[in-house]
Amino acid sequence: MMEAASYMSRSKIDSLGLNIAEMTFLTGGSSISKELTDWFVQTTGARLIQGYGLTETCGFCTVDYPDNPKHGSSGVVVSNMRMKV
Fold this sequence. Notes:
With 85 residues, the chain is an alpha+beta fold. It contains three helices and four strands; from the N terminus they run ααβαβββ. The protein has one domain.
């Protein structure tokens, strides 16, 4: 992670001219460590939430709550979606 930390800094993000702090980013495919999640949020100021889906069927089937993300959770089933476990 130190390689990413040296490459990505708040000043570099600000130089892009985007208001990243008001964005929400979704991650999926595998779980993401709490350490990396915390680093991303502290560095960018943006929200990072996790979800679950299958590329061959749909994007995200479940998404964590953006306003109250819980690390390690892939969230709740999105509206108009049915799931069986």
